[in-house]
Write a structure and sequence with these properties.
The complex is a heterodimer of chains A (about 525) and B (about 110). With about 525 residues, chain A is an all-alpha fold. Helices cover about 75% and strands about 0% of the residues of chain A. Chain A has one domain. Chain A contains 21 helices and two strands. Chain A has a two-stranded antiparallel sheet with strand order 1-2. Chain B has a single domain, classed as Helix Hairpins (Orthogonal Bundle). The model of chain B has no long low-confidence stretch (mean pLDDT about 85). The chains are: A mainly alpha (about 525), B mainly alpha (about 110). At the A-B interface, helix 6 and helix 7 of A face helix 2 and helix 3 of B.
């Protein structure tokens, strides 16, 4: 075992931290250098995620003890199949958003590159940590970076929506602390694996405190996952955020889903509160669908689309079967990639309707950037007639993904999910209800996105928008990854089904963490 | 003693929640601060309410765990205090920016219609 593989687990936390700190030292005008450092750091993170993923298929949980303190006393980082998959997803989204931002968004405000790195550090840490309080710390890191990114580019709308976003998330963080404190007070440990061992031994009179603590903790995660009625903040915040920031945010709501999946299955074996997740998820789908149909702008449409995907995930997890969870994980990958591509695409499409990004130009001038070095604004893109066709094709792909129609993998995800839900012999009534809801959500996505698509691409009278290659490439790459997930659906589903089974039988995870 | 601490936490949390639900941004910030004090106290008393005991176990005498207080909640509460301090500072900046850009201190950025 070489030194590299031994310390591989902490790389996704340390690399963005170091890169983000290094980026702070350079002046805002050295953009090429900053972009190079940012991309290099992301490339390392991608490599580390792939290596962890490869190792996760053989080792149930790769444990890294910080400071070499053994597990229940020290803080551990744990990379299992689920963590490795989420790390990979975060790195891919980070690269796409960063490349997209290099066209112009990174110039719209100070310290953009550092914030992206710190956001990734928080995300990676939250996916890796095996300690409840450490999870809180990484959540806060991720959220603080996301507050600043939501404000990136400034402007009245962003500041107003960020205010709501910050207040709601601060309150949710306080709930997180209450929940963690109650769990610690009863069990005397914060290590997740140790908690899983101790919770069944809690005496009956303290049982209610554990359950209250876990329920309060769940509120914090479900606010992040935007479950109805905790998710009203999401569409307007994400619609107001800058395109690359919004694309990164599409994985933030999945962090809440990840935390629910991890802790609920580890601590309670998926028994307590399953109905709440199932019915809450279904209510979220219904809310998201009505929002999609009512949305007036593409940004809000994408936000409600994200809510629908959160609801689908929560309902699928709440169904409480390993097969449904495996399908839900596939859906998580597909919907995150799809909605990130959609958020990036919106910015390009909107340019057709509002020629020249006036807001951006104003803020760039306010920061005194954008007039030295690099090329003048006129060469920012070449107006070719094919641009509209390319954008239209990407838009159609996003619509197919959101609606879950073949040949894109949204269809496979929903198909696998419904197949798992309808597998038990007397099919439970709630599974039929979920089937109807999922079908309706697909229909609503077709209607809502078809309506916007027709309005933008067929009824447009303005000239085609100017789009640069490095703006189009990330969108195309994200959609191509979705297509690749269709082609490689077999191996991907095998991996994800193994992941779900490991989550339902956490013995290997607990053993690896607690035995040094 | 437990009753006093519990009442204190309850009053702080209650005031915090009430203020967070008020329409002015400054009230919201103060409410969040009060709420976070309540939460910090709650974490703190998870190590039991006992006075005059050291959180650090010495090496000399035979160690009796009952005469020491649990150091972990104190470490946790320090972290929580630092984080809530930093986020409150950030929120204050956003509050001022919102006041400057919208011209009102209402949380929705506009005065409600009479």
């Amino acid at each position: 075992m070489s030194l590299w593989t031994e310390h591989l687990v902490i790389a996704p936390v340390v690399v963005p931290l170091a890169a983000g700190a290094l980026l702070l030292l350079y002046d805002e005008r050295r953009r090429k250098l900053k972009a190079a450092i940012g991309l290099a750091s992301l490339a390392v993170q991608l490599g580390a995620a792939v290596a962890l993923l490869a190792r996760a298929t053989t080792i149930p949980a790769q444990v890294y003890a910080l400071g070499d303190w053994p597990a229940p006393f020290g803080i551990v980082l744990v990379a299992d199949r689920l963590s490795a998959m989420m790390l990979l997803l975060a790195a891919v989204l980070g690269i796409a958003a960063l490349v997209f931002s290099l066209a112009r968004w990174h110039r719209a405000g100070p310290r953009f590159h550092s914030l992206v790195q710190f956001l990734l550090m928080g995300l990676n840490g939250a996916f890796l940590t095996g300690d409840l309080f450490n999870l809180f710390v990484f959540f806060e890191l991720m959220l603080v970076a996301s507050y600043a990114l939501a404000l990136h580019g400034s402007g009245t709308a962003r500041v107003r929506e960020s205010l709501h976003y910050i207040v709601i998330n601060l309150t949710a963080s306080l709930f997180f602390l209450i929940g963690a404190a109650l769990l610690y007070g009863v069990t005397g440990t914060l290590n997740m694996a140790d908690l899983a061992m101790r919770i069944p031994q809690v005496p009956a009179e303290d049982r209610v405190l554990v359950e209250v603590g876990a329920a309060i903790l769940a509120i914090a995660f479900l606010v992040k996952a935007a479950m109805w009625p905790l998710g009203f903040w999401l569409p307007s915040t994400y619609a107001a955020a800058a395109a690359p920031a919004a694309a990164m945010f599409s994985i933030l709501s999945k962090v809440g889903v990840y935390a629910v999946l991890r802790l609920w299955l580890l601590l309670f074996g998926g028994a307590a509160g399953a109905e709440l997740l199932l019915y809450g998820g279904m209510a979220t789908i219904a809310y998201g669908v009505s929002g999609m149909l009512a949305a007036q702008t593409l940004g809000r449409l994408a936000g409600f689309n994200l809510i629908v995907s959160s609801g689908t995930l929560l309902a699928a997890i709440g169904a409480g079967q390993a097969a449904a969870t495996g399908a839900a994980l596939y859906y998580l990958l597909v919907s995150t990639l799809g909605s990130a591509a959609f958020f990036l695409l919106i910015e390009l499409v909107e340019r057709a309707r509002t020629p020249g990004a006036d807001v951006l130009a104003v803020t760039a001038a306010a920061f005194g950037v954008g007039d030295e070095e690099t090329e003048p604004e006129e060469e920012a893109g070449v107006a070719i007639p094919a641009t509209m066709a390319l954008l239209g094709l990407s838009f159609a792909c996003c619509a197919l993904l959101a609606a879950g129609l073949p040949p894109l993998p949204g269809f496979l995800a929903k198909f696998a999910l419904l197949a798992a839900l309808l597998a038990p012999d007397p099919v439970p009534g709630v599974a039929w209800a979920l089937l109807v809801l999922l079908t309706l959500s697909g229909l609503a996505a077709v209607v809502a996105m078809g309506r916007s698509g027709v309005r933008i691409f067929w009824a447009t009278t303005t000239s085609p928008p100017r789009v640069r290659l490095i703006e189009m490439a990330p969108v195309a790459a994200l959609l191509a990854l979705c297509l690749a997930l269709t082609v490689a659906a077999g191996p991907a589903m095998n991996y994800l089904n193994d992941t779900a089974r490991a989550l339902y039988a956490p013995g290997g995870y607990i053993e690896n963490v607690l035995t040094p | 003693m437990e009753l006093i601490v519990a009442l204190g936490i309850g009053v702080l949390a209650g005031c915090g929640v009430w203020l967070v639900l008020r329409p002015r941004t400054f009230q919201v910030v103060i409410g969040l601060s009060l709420f976070s004090y309540a939460v910090n106290l709650l974490i703190f008393i998870m190590g039991w309410v006992r006075g005059g005991r050291a959180p650090i176990v010495g090496t000399s005498a035979p160690v009796d765990v009952a005469s020491f207080t649990d150091p972990l909640p104190q470490a946790l509460v320090l972290t929580a205090i630092v984080i809530s301090f930093a986020t409150t500072a950030l929120l204050l900046v956003v509050l001022l920016a919102a006041r400057g850009l919208t011209g009102t201190d209402h949380v929705d950025g506009r005065e409600p219609e009479e």
